[in-house]
Fold each of these.
Amino acid sequence: MNRNKLSLALAALLLTPAIGAVHAQSTSSSSSGTQDQNGTSVQNAKQMQTITVTGSALPRIDVETPSPVTVITAKQIARSGLTTLSDVVRAVSADNSGSVPNAFSNGFAAGSSGVALRGLTVNSTLVLIDGHRNANYPVSDDGQRSFVDLNTIPLAAVERIEVLKDGASSLYGADAIAGVVNIILRRSFQGVEATADVGTSQHGGGFTRKATFLAGGGDLEKDHYNAYLSVQYQKDNPIMASQRGFPYNTGDLSSLGGPGLGGAPGHAAGTDGAIRPNTAGSLWQPLHGCTTGPLITDPKNGSWCRYDAKNRYAQVQPAMEQGGIYSRFTVKLNDTTTAYLSASYNEAKTTTRGAPRSIQSSTPNNTNNIALPVGNPSNPFVVPALISYNFGDIPVGFNYDNHNARIVGDVSGQVGEWNYDAALVLNHEWLDSTQQGYISYAALMDAVAKGTYNFANPSANSAAIRSALAPGYNKTSTSDLDTLDLSANRELWDLPGGPMGLGIGAQIRHEAQNDPTLNPNFEFQGLGNAQTKGSREVSGIYAEVDMPLLDSLEVDASGRFDHYTDAGNNFSPKIGFKYKATDWLAFRGTYSKGFRAPSFAENGSSSTQGFVTHTPPPAFQTAHGNDAYVLPYSLSEYTLANKNIKPEKARSFTFGVVLQPTSWLNASVDYYNIKKTNNIVAADTSSALANYYAGLPQAPGVTVIPDLPDPDHPGALARPSEIIGSYLNANSLKTTGIDVDLQAHFEFANNWQYISELTGTQIFQWKETLADGSTQSYVGTQGPYNLSSGAGTPRSRASWSNTLVAGPLTVTGTLYYTSGYREIAADVGTLGLYNGDCLSTNPITGLNFPSSCSVGAFYDFDLTGSYAFNDHFSLTASVMNAFDRKPPFDPANYAGGGLNYNPTWSQAGLVGRFYNLGVKVKF
């Protein structure tokens, strides 16, 4: 067990939970150090116990492995001021493109939250609890990507979170291409601990209340058992756009040179409605006196009532309610054998509200030119009348109620020279979704024909009439994961640097997903559709060998073989090294191969219909006289599963330097390079649109369905209504970058401490190669725009935390930073579909909007503190976004309800300055 000063210094550093930032990154993790009152590790070499680090199957004394690992302790989480596991994990600087925020309430996977390390989307980051897999969210992101919902994992029982920022398929199998998030729960607890917190935004809305309770008893060494119970509850009120200032509370951006509300009645008619005789040259006129806004008159189009749907209905933050219970009973059977049984139930409810549905829709049935027949009570003309109308008397929204039930049984011990562990995991997740306010096509056509719905006087409509038009729909989606994990390890023989270690393991699991159709028989207008069903059996075996060849050189090799009943076989190898050049300088690196098995949405009995906001190209707009027909609209993308799809493959390598030039300064820099091949993608939307506008044939398997003709220019090319294709292995991508971690620790007299940490991730490259050999680069842009929330790929994310500990007082300030990006996206703009490829333009002038075609950087500062009056009572407080920093203007983002900001990176900006106050009691 020869360990030089660097190893001991690094171990002491990594076991110190005194860093206040949630981004706290370190080279490895530990559960073995004891801590004094101020959180400083007092562990030394003699006290060290062997532990297992995420990314390794072997217990070790030197906790620094060849792979970089981020550690976030419970103390760090408390000092951050963040209250949900979702916020904590997504604050890690390595989280990037494809991340799923709670504020994305109009996506397929609304009601959930997911992490995307290295920007490789949520389906390439594996989320574990105590080293074991979890059931995926029952609904796939974008109807395609499977992932674990972070909202169903409460914080109360979390001991620490380990984030492995390296490929790990050689031990964990599929989905670990970008890395692993391993949530470690408390092994035992004695005593009683309870917290209560309340918080509110300075600008209104978002009032939150949270309570936790933790109680346990029994000493494993003395009593041979421990049992504890953890309970958590949190409820957050919604924040409405109307509670925020311009330009985040309106759809009228005309004062900034953008689109206004008076562009056309089809986009501004509101509940008041507008109508016109179905004859050439006729003008629109309001159905009745305006109630949604002043009358707007345009010589070209006519008159209608001003209507700002975003101000009236859009949400900055949905209403959320989360709670859970976790219990664990551990028994020490003898000196070498320990067993535990844990059970948990967690629930996350999300309630979203939206703008009233319009009578005009392009999918699944085109009603853009719907006309009231002669004799309809709302039609004053002697000819059929085109109508523009929003059903403002029918509330619109979704309720998502996600449940997660999990049971784990585990036995670990020692037989001869072998240490073993056997675990059985049973995990079932079910999501109840309730939709309301979407208009039934059949009921709409019946109401128009019979005149049963009164458009001219909506107050005259009965509840029964409204219910017939929008009957609503309920469905329950399920996801299952049953796993048997077996592992063992032992020392083999001594090498010059220490004993050689061997770890082996096997896993058998059952996976299933059943997500019924979102829009049965395409009944509801303007609502996408997705349905997923599939199941499979997976078996895998793996091995790891750790070889300390010298006191200064360690080599680690591992590999895993997996068999999928629906995706075939795969072998994933990995090799890593760690070299200590001096007492203060070490080098580390890894090379690995990984894979991602197709999701059930990609190869099951599945299909997906989604919508993207599309603006026709300038030439098309000119051909249609720049009328309402060419304003931005929802384009349908319909994708079918492919049972012959192959798994995605990846190769990655890392290289890092770890330094400790002084006793108070530590630094690490790690470079990563990942290349994915066989990428599973849908039909190329940009190519399909370019071919359509150019009159060229489509690629095999791709179909573009045209919309109804423009009534004012019937001879011109109709705009595209829907693109149909299937998933295929077509593309490859490559991403490179670095992680930086600088930590400084200072200790002063009278038990004072000051700790400063700067951490960050810089992406050098994020480039995708398409099937035709062309490339698309996304780093520093808002691409890939068709991915998840269209959040883009910021080049840099970082945090800088400073913690002052003065006896019973602890104060932490953390500055978070996300770089700006160009408002372009190669997956939708490289073929000239937008003016200058800018995602946002003025629909009248065609000019970039904003003129810079860029989105600024976002940073915010959180200030938290706690004061321990005694060993039993402490007070906590925080001011989140203390400087009330506003989010950068982003009119192209579609995740935040079209409120002109990007909720994935700057949600804190629109929430605004937020105050929290709490108490904590311990016995």
Amino acid sequence: MKNHQYAIADYNLKIVKKELRDIHFLDDSTDDIDNPAELLKTFLLKSFLDQQSLAIRGQKIAGMLASFEENALTFLDKNAPISKIGFYNIALQLLHFEVGEDFLIDNPITKMKTLNLPVANVHDNMNLYDTMTAWYLLLNTHNKYGTTFIDDLASKGYFAQNLNSFKKPLIFNGKAMPVYDTNNLIREVVYVEAAQDNDHDGNLDLLKTEIIRPKESNKNKVPVIFTASPYNQGTNDKDGEQLTHNVNVSLKHKEPNNYSYSDIEHHSKKEKLPEPRPIEGKTRKAEQTLDREQSYTLNDYFLARGFAVVYSAGIGTYESDGFRTTGDDDETLSATAVIEWLNGKRTAFTNKTDNNQIEAYWSNGSIAMSGRSYLGTLQIAAATTGVDGLKTCIAEAAISNWYDYYRENGLVLAPGGFQGEDADVLAAETYSLKQQATEFYKNKDAWEKQLSSITDGQDRNTGNYNEFWDARNYLKNAKNIKADMFLIHGLNDDNVKPKNVEQIWNAIKPLNINKKLILHQGKHIYINAFQSIDFTDMINLWLTYKLLDVDNNADELIPNVLIQDNVKAETWNAFGEWENPDDVKTLHPSNNNELTDEFDHGRKEFKDQLSVNDFEKYCLDYKQWRDDLVLDHENNPLTNNRVIFKTTPAKEDFTIDGKVKISLNASSTQNYGMLSCMLVDYGEAYRLTESPKNLGHRINEGYLWREDSLREFKIQNKKTPYKEIAEGHINMQNRKNSYHVDDMEANEFYDMELELQPTFYHVPAGHQLGLIIFATDFENTIRGNQDLKYRISLAETDIKLPIRKQ
């Protein structure tokens, strides 16, 4: 393993002594100790549970080696000087590294550095203060299983021995500690009254909201993590499957238009709302509870640390009012309504009939949002309203513009893995109100009308950007964001593609807020249980600062941009910015299929149609289609369905940083057409696994509490010949933009520009870059299998690569 820790807060001896006392490693019994060996032995004894006998604890210490000659207990009982080597021999074993298997005795410092674990700056013969400082740092050091030593102790019951003896919240090294009893959590349900009447029944919509909070919050207010999840109350998978659209349809010529943005701009309509419900009574006691929520392990982690966690599925979900709308203002309002209630500015009731008001009296008014995908998307939506109380968003794989999720440059485009899905399919899947029979049948006709309006608005016929999509473009209101933003995204995410995070990152750059960005090598995943990076600790540092106002220097300690390397396993690099290349390299395609510095003339041609058998095969096997698209082999059905241009092998490593831009001059044999481009890394190499591997260890989120699986990207066992870097697609009639449609004639050449998905890609020396130009993308675009031929004019086609030197 290789460790990367960014969340170790600054400390000095004064802080060390105070905080070791706060967590009971220093106390009255240690004040009279004047020998470093005795102090370290005391620390070790305290590391094992009090209820274990002194003999058992001594036995555990004796089970560790301090040197080749002595076990740790014998070594410490001599009260001889503690060498730095002796300390770190013991430290590595406390961090679960095995002698002989993971490191060699008497060479621990080298191993610590190899593992990228922090080593205390102390004397070689450690004094009392050195021992305290080294122990303090060790408690904050990640172990072999991806958690800090102090969290490892907590999971074994260190704090649980006497929870009432610790301060609450307990802050250690700038982070909240798990000193709350997760077996005694309060679970309750309320109904928040939103400022909307989405189902037009003459009443403001009530939104079911589930709360899990520490018992201590009855007396002391706590911060809140809110996850807005449309999936939280269940899904209608069968409805989604039935509504999924057929993608084996023909591309068609579109009627030209001369639209400007004002022609398709969405303006929110201010409708007269019903009056709020009269308050008939007030209470602090909820009437409804919950047994088990669809939890997120990062939220579970913070429950043990004294944060309340709130879930709400929003309009059109089980036991809430309204209809699903997939991403528009109504969904945003249903998220901000909960935030406003948590901040004391909105009403909630104990049930949907009695008008008995209940306040979030236990909330300190500081709210963070968490979650991935749709859950992250609603964070972006809520943040763009500037709603009070929302202090920060931890938005993972979030959509910033729904058009860029379901469309691209005038084309209907599927999110990876979901061919045929669209906004109406997602609405049907998340309409869990259907599971409440009386409400569903009462609203059945109105819901069908609502669903039809989504189908009409999304416009799968043209794929153009229109008012429907403009209403779902959060970038328009990014200037209103007041919350600090922590964005996480996979550079290989083919579901919510990287363009979504790149756009919101660029939109918030000018804002006077704190913002962080993590780009990992995954697809559509969470990274809070990775072995190589202290993501959870960083979020702890961040939220302890943002929601508990602890001055822990989180803004400065956490790098602005963290990016996982795609070549070296377990390697993360910190940068000041993303999309900050040193140079833009322009390359031109040649007649002999090379990418060079020189212009070449001539044309390349490819077709789109396949035999029925090959077409049907690729519709069922995207991997085979992709391999055949990228690689040359005998009897390849796609040999004439794409053109490939390659660079010469790279003389040295370099990085592509940002958006690759393709200028094309092309024609189609019909008066319509689409072009797809893929940038590929060619070279036989051991690459990272496509998905993180389960390492077979469970991470505890607290004591006798929930768990997560330790994961990490590893180097594959076999070499692979290529890796896709980025791709892009365009309708040839949307050469200007996604809402302006140009006319097109068969066999006429047209200029167009296409940006591939933004990336940060390390190209090793000896590898070649390949540009593949084709039409139908079996995994993403519609698939008409039409008799179309395309020609590319080489002299007016090029690729621009944003290059950052290694």
Amino acid sequence: MRALSVSFFLFLLRHFGYSQAITTIPAFPTADQEVTIIFDVSRAQDARARGLLGKTDDVYLWSGAGTTDTGNAFEYQPTGQTDFSKPYEPGKMSPLGNNRWQIKLVPRQYFKVPADKPIRRLGVLLKSGNGQAQTEDFFIRIYDSRLSVARLAPTEKNFFVDPNQNLLVRATASQRANLSLLLDNTPVATAANQDSLRFTLNSGTKPGQRRTVIFRAQTATETAADTFYFTVRPQSPVAPLPAGLRDGINYQTANRATLVLFAPQKSFVYLIGEFNNWSPSAQYLMNRTPDGNRYWLELNNLPAGQEVAYQYLVDGTIAVADPYAETILDPNNDRFITATTYPNLKAYPAGASGIVSVLQTNQTPYTWKVPNFRRPDPKNMVVYELLVRDFVGARTYKTVADSIPYLKRLGINAIELMPIMEFSGNDSWGYNPVFYFAPDKAYGTKNDLKAFIDKCHENGIAVILDMVLNQADYEFPYVRLYWDGSRPAANNPFFNLQATHPFSVFFDFNHESPATQAYVERVNRFWLDEYKFDGYRFDLSKGFTQKNTGNDVGAWSAYDAGRVAIWKRIYNQIRSVDPTAYVILEHFADNTEERELADYGMLFWGNLNDPYRTLAKGFTANPNWISYKQRGWQNPNVVGYLESHDEERLVYDVRQNGRVAGSYNTRNLPTALDRAKLAATFFLPVPGPKLLWQFGELGYDVSINENGRTGTKPIRWEYLQDPERRKLFRVYQELITLKMRQPAFQTTDFTLDFDQVVKRITLNHPSMTVFIIGNFDGQMQATQAGFPKTGKWYDYFTGQETEVTNTQTALSLQPGEFHLYTTEKLPAPEAGLVPYSGSLTGTITGLEPVPDGILLYPNPTAETALLEFENTYIGPVELQVGSPGGQVLRSQTVQKTASLLRQPISLQQLPRGLYWLKIQQGHKQAVRKIVKW
């Protein structure tokens, strides 16, 4: 969590001094008298409080009252305070300026606490009206008539001072009393019959000495006291780092481990934790290496196999968890993780504050069932991108693992997990990482994650991790350790003061810094070695640059030699650890840069969402950039996609904004799903790896902006009960099967004819030729077929055979109509997966259109129209009436015995709307529209 406007001492964690984010008037508030509560939002520590900074309105109190000193502080809540996502008007705060807010209330009245119940403390926080910005929880002590004391200065509970420093102490009592101030149990100041005391202490000169200060008030019948501690800044012992140790936790025996922290430009570091009651002590002052860059300490007598929590207290001002920790505990978020999700989660340790890291010696290693997985060929991957949170209701690795049979049935051979390393909060897309070596506990245990990956490998499915190394959130220790109050400090060895590029989120890594390079190398090695991930998809890879382009998107996307060098270095490091690991970049840079890196071996996300969505809606677009050949690349390294986590959902957009042409309406669900089949048929067969977004194969039609862009989305497994959605699934399944099993779909000899509204794909291979044709328009299109060659062709989705004697025969394609032809007969899928199953069957020997002069009247008609045309043909004429979706509704064959044919066409019992009439005489055909009103 981050707060962006805090001064030096405000970084003290609460167990080293509760910052003055809240003050009250009076200083000793009671249950039945009015109290003014004043918040200074700039002193809040939660990352979400940043959204409150600078506000002049829309800030609300969310609060409760508790009847015990340490129990539930929200036991009683004001009437009507029920929905955190909405403003609570009685709690509306009044601005005081400079990020300070106040509210006046009488606790017993405001919280409706019964008169016979005491109020011991209030739980309070500030939030925006919609709840998206908020402070952490604060607690206000409520006093009774007993003697009480409060310390006004210093405000910290436990802190460091310089040798021989003067320290002002100010304290007050709730009534007149005999006051005294004790330093290490020795009185240094007294005041008789007073309600306040002011005195200046001298810290002393002994480095590392921890001193105790007690303020005491006494009357004839009562005594009250307050205690705080300070430590004279120590001098770190200097000692070289023992051989073989690296940053982070180094396990050595069942009860011994050495901790190493990289912290250049820092003066001293204490190890604090459960072993010393979270207080700095001489034996836990860490050694400093001669170069001043690292601190290290060996821990002995650790309990074998037990989890031990710890932090680093750096320069006496900030305590952070280990940036290399594999498990962390978060007091703000872990309480919402259930035992079902994470059994036996270690309780947050008493006396700690903020995120803490955990070490555990003598761990039982996970036993891999598939220790040497053979990865799918990257040239023919079909990757399924999913977000654990929005894929299964339980939001756990275990339940995602239960869905592997479904994904295997679909046919995919790789899964891409959206980021799963510890991120801020429990509910996120994951692009706000804070601990890069720790799987987020919100999804389960680390062994649950390993078991999921293992099960994927058992089923032939690779697992790719979405890796976020462009940015980190505020709670990342190396953001907090080098911070200037509103952004990373100039001396931060990892981060830029501000991002060098547009679209920056959170805090921007400097990838030319040696510190960042070393950390990135460790992170990438870790997940490959420890979890057996099969590679990475790197988020915002175009941001890995020190070339400052400000907000100029064009300049940012231009060829960047420095960025190319960074990525080649990272790629080489990864491949030195794992020679077959996938390296996929979300780059979207100039093609010359992507081509160079693709030819070097990297894969690239290929975003074709916009053109395919446009086509699916019935409008004009050209998605030929899905082809690596179109880009001039040597290898098929474009991971093309119709949808990803970051794009609007195709079927949703079609249903909202698709084309309506007469009765052909892409917005109704069956037609929208047919349009999705059409898009998939011109997407998956294009040679090269492909990516699907979760539930796209079922026509997910909930907007990306539902509940906010990154907010939780409804999970739609019930789609499987819908026959029409199951048909879309089967089309995806069949196309993926062809891609995986038929060499022609992996060919390097292919052409894409995407310029016109009727589009074609030709795949040439010694095993067979594949020809795909489809009409993306919202109305019927008459066109020349463009078959690659004459001979027998088989319509894959119907199994029907067609003899082609003229490759340029004339065809009439209904809106959305498509066909996938092969020169070899393949087992046909079940009937009815695609519309227009009878449109192009039979013998095609150079079909010519029926001569013009066709009359169809009246049109529109109420029941029956009359068809008339005249030519020299004598013989059978086939007449078909069909729906705009391509289904044949009525069919008849009439005998033409004279030059003139006059035939009634009945629309009786059909609903009002647009239909088509196909006229087939011999090898000639024509299609006409007919409207029933």
Amino acid sequence: MFEFERGTGSRSEAGHPEGSAIVTLAKAGYPSFQTVDAATFRNQIMAKLVYQVGQSPETATDHDWFMATAYAVKERVVDVWNLSTKENEPSGAGRKKVCYLSMEFLIGRLLSEIIGNLGLTSTVEEALAGLGISLDSLRTFETDAALGNGGLGRLAACFMESMATTDVPAVGYGIRYDYGIFKQSFRSGWQQEAPDDWMAGGNPWEFERSHLVYPVRFGGYVQTRTDSAGHVYHTWCPDETVLAVAHDTPVVGWRGKRVNTLRLWAARAEQPLRLQLFNAGDHVGAQTARARAEAISNVLYPSDASPAGHELRLRQEYFFTSASLQDLLHGHLREHGSLASLPEHAAIQLNDTHPALAVAELMRLLVDEHGFDWDEAWRITTGTLNYTNHTLMPEALETWPVALLEQVLPRHMQIIYLINWLHLEGLSKAGRLDPGRLASISLIDENNGRHVRMGHLAFIGSRKVNGVSALHTDLLKKTVFRDLHEIFPDRIVNKTNGITVRRWFHEANPGLKRLVVSTLGERVLDDIDMLVELETLADDPSFQRKFAAVRLQNKLNLADIIRRRLDVTVDPTALFDIQVKRIHEYKRQLLNVLETIALYQAIKANPNRNWVPRVKVFAGKAAPSYVKAKLIIKLANDVARMVNSDPVIGDRLKVAFLPNYNVSLAEAIIPAADLSEQISTAGMEASGTGNMKFALNGALTIGTLDGANVEISEHIGRENMFIFGLTTEQVEERRRSGGDARDALSTSSRLKGVLAALSEGMISPDDCDRYRGLIEALVSHDPYMIIDDFGAYWTAQRSVDELWLNQSEWWRRSILSTARMSWFSSDRTIRDYVQEIWHA
């Protein structure tokens, strides 16, 4: 097969000889997909159905038609992919390739994104219509790729699409998970987890690269020898080798300008079957090595509650990091001949600490396998690696026990020790090491058992370290990396996150896209900054009506999903109040649920008041071992059952918790939102990207001054948001003062009524004690300031009600939100990375 990723061979090898129409058009700047008419494409779909799917039109299922259409589209993508990797391959000092290492790539469904970016949507629609098939219906038969969990993975997907759009040569590296994190369902309101077998029906977008296989080693011991000149050599003698097999998915940029590669590694055993054991009757034992190896790429974030689970997570992180670096070095040597020039031709971005072992692994590869001396290897490593931090929470800042690293990666532990010693020794000799700071800047945390701080390792081994919002970056400098920042004051920079407008505006909200294009012209699709021109129409009653009509249609669509999935009927003209994100205490779904109970009680006590009808929508998954998060899900579902079945409440309030939140569900939920809940405890959310998606689509934000909410408020105007609660500084002061949550509780009879209802079992009559422990813990220790912020949150929600009654003013602010959000495009973020970090 033609090696797309390597840019080798001639066009004739790909089946398109010099002088062919495709090559002629390509040389003229017109990729082949622009020349396809509907009739030709219809024939191609038919051919793929028969010869690749193996079905006739008479026997084909809807899924068969989807696969045939996807194969036909992929064929068009390959032409552009070849051109991207061959004609635009990095060359010379001015063209770098970006390697983006991430545990997650939450890419969602790809058919709509690809045909939209290639400008093929109308062609595909017409081609399918001629076969009696609706493209809108066909999209639903594609399964979401289960390659991520939340914001980290969706950000990585946005960045990959934006790098292709902005013509940055890039490869995304990750793991090809067989089952993702899990498929979520509810049983009696409790979260249930099942494998998400997302590839059961086949994945039409990927190419398996069976020739791209790299050995990844574990365990064993290290031999040391010294030659006659006194040079010391280390040889790692592992006791296990796992093979990393590459699977490539094309990432198509807007207008098909570039197609980059998402390369995911599948784990395979070096010896999949011990035939002697099998023939001896030990059929299970003969495949033990295979099961152990393939477990690495089975599940995203396996529970680390057990020692085996903890080790598996480490094996996963090293597996994809090692395979990716080997692949990068292999390609660089082939093209440039020497690894000494790696920093001039490649930039590696570590997306969080999961790939932080890249520091030790790149040093190992350079020193042990390619013969560089330590200082030169360190120059190459620190000139190539960059690190993005995504969290300030101590429990989320990865550390690994020294004993586990010595067992699983003994050579890497040696390298980490040496990096740390040289780091501290160098600072000491330069007179920059304050003995009082030794513990805080060392890579080894000596408290509560010896652990390696992966954030510190990534910091020391990287050229640049970035936060993901202005507030987050400032806090990085003051908290997590305070002492390191004082020593290396130019290393930390800010790169505020962004979202791809193609997915979260063009594709997710086609009605709004059509309205904006009809108002501003087609150029807005290429220049999102043109959205600012909508400001002049924010007070226009006619435009407000059109804007509101788009929202109503989106709410009708979401109401239909709620009815079909939950058997709950909601009023689409009600205010849709939405919080969808990973379930975590700091994201404060619990605060939202408590306010929902308070609102229910208020309506119940005074049903004749003119209440604003409201639909509360929740969605999100809790980690399988996160007991409290799962209890919050159960609470939300208990509240939904109570509220939705109460005839006194009627349509004044409805609650819906939609199961199995993923990208496709988000695409239906976000454009339907009137109110976006971004209510994390101030100082705890690094950035957020859901807040950007909602605001771009015109939802008004209720939130704290946390993460990127701060910058969103600066761009769209704080007066167009509902900001409430303690600030970051006030949260820290509250924690330092050791204030008792009972003090705040004593002043709120409303909250006391809510907590009493929970403690006494009114919400859970089948188990009166179910939430007693949750409430007692909240009252005795409230690290997420739920009790402190409840009153301000209730007041802000009543301000929402008041504004909703003034529809003209609501829609004015909604239009301004959309008009002023273009800065939060991930295209802008990528350009910032290119200019200030990657120099690509």
